[in-house]
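FAQ: What does a ligand-bound record look like?

Like this one, built around zinc ion:
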Amino acid sequence: MKEGCPVCRILGEYEESEINTILYEHVNDPTVRVKFKESLGLCTYHAWKTLKTAYSNPLLGPLGVAIIYEHMLSTYIKILESWEKVKEGECFLCLLVEEKEKDTVEAITEKIEELLPVYESSEAILCKRHHEMIDSILRKKNPQSAERLRKVQLEKLKKLRERMNSFINKFDYKALERPTREEVSSLPMTIEALKGLENGATLRKKERKKRTRGVLLWR
Ligand SMILES: [Zn+2]
Ligand SMILES: [Zn+2]
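The answer part, i.e. the structure of the complex:
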C-alpha cells in the first residue's frame, strides 16, 4: 500500500481509466452519447477532467472531446431556441465512481482481517470519509475489527502530526536543516487524510448538500 488513502487512490485510477475508455472506444457510441446528453456534458469537474485527459495523451488529442461537446452545444442551442426548460441530470461518471466507491469499501470490510496488518505497516492513511464508511459497516458486522482499525488510524494520524510539527519547526530561523521529503509531504498527506482526493464521489456529496440547502433557503 502506497502513501495516502487507498480508496481515494483506487477511485482516482478508476476514474482515469473510465475516461480513457470513453475517449478511446466510445466517442461515437450512441448509448454513451445518451448518457452525456442526460447531464448536458457531465458535471463541471468531469467535463474539465475529460478535456485534460485528452490533451495530456498524445494518442488522443482534443478531437473526440470536440465531437462529443459539439453535440452537447447543439443540444443546448436547440433547447434554448425552443424555450424548453434546460434539464441537467446527474453526471454518469459521478454515479459510476460512487458505485465503485461502495464496492471498494465493501470489499475492504470483507477482507479486513487480512488487510489490517498490511495497512498498519504501510504508509497508507485512509481519509476521514473512507474510514467512516468502512467503520460504519464494520461496527455492525465485525465491531472488534472496527475498534482495531480505529486504533491503527489514530496511531497513523498522530505520526502524521509529528511529521507536520517537525516540518513547521524547520521554518524557525534557528533551524539548521532543510525539511526532509517526509516532512514536506506531511502537508498534502494531512489534507488528504482530512478531505480525501477530488473524485466524482466526494464532489457529488458536496453538490447534493448544496442542493438541499438551496431548497431549504427557498422555503
Ligand atoms: Zn479516501
Ligand atoms: Zn461527474
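Follow-up question: can I read anything off the structure? Yes, for example: DSSP finds ten helices and no strands in the chain.
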